[in-house]
Specification:
Length: 201
């Protein structure tokens, strides 16, 4: 009887509604109207591709300058790490901590967790399915905070421009960093948590 129910039940990936209808594959969710699927199609392939791409782009994002500051004609370029060090040297510890967490801790944590989830789907690991699912939702919720650096550079570039005296422009590194943030958000969004429960620990 339980198998009968499981074969008919669909969990909407958008709103979480359980739809218990036979032959509901591809039908619209009665609550939000999204297309019902037992599993997201090609979820693993997309998540792997996006995660690997974000890891590759993370290197130029940290090696290339993210911001160019021109003061009285003298130009200074800073990478993300260079900016963190500069904030620290100027005793701006709070900003230094925020930038460090948003630029290093969060992206690395996201990519590490996604790799962990992908590689442990078909084998036993230190965490059970409940813990893996909770870990995924942590990643899903903190991912957008990495865009903080991008917003800071964009705001400073737009507001601080006095010509010869002071001019701030975004560097190529911020483009790569934006791509990393977007790719990791897409990767977590394409991952189907129901795959974690397909094979119990």
């Amino acid at each position: 009887m339980l198998n009968d129910i499981e074969s008919k039940a669909f969990l909407c990936a958008t709103c979480g509604t359980l739809v218990n209808e036979e032959g509901a594959e591809g039908a619209a969710c009665p609550v939000c109207g999204s297309r019902l699927q037992r599993r997201k199609k090609h979820s693993l392939q997309r998540t792997w591709a996006l995660t690997i791409a974000s890891i590759i782009l993370y290197f130029p994002a940290n090696l290339l300058p993210v911001m160019d500051v021109q003061v009285m004609g003298d130009s200074t370029s800073n990478t993300i790490l260079g900016g963190v060090i500069q904030f620290y040297q100027y005793d701006m510890y709070f900003i230094c901590a925020v930038v460090f967490v948003a630029s290093f801790v969060v992206p690395i944590f996201k990519m590490t967790v996604l790799l962990y989830l992908l590689t442990t789907l078909r084998k036993k690991s230190g965490l059970n399915n409940v813990q893996k699912t909770r870990l995924y939702y942590i990643v899903e919720h903190i991912g957008k905070w990495s865009m903080l650096d991008v917003f800071v550079v964009a705001i400073m570039s737009g507001l601080i421009n006095t010509g010869y005296m002071l001019n701030i422009t975004g560097g190529l590194g911020i483009v790569f960093f934006s791509a990393v943030v977007i790719l990791t958000m897409w990767a977590s969004g394409s991952f189907d948590t129901r795959l974690i429960w397909d094979k119990g620990d």
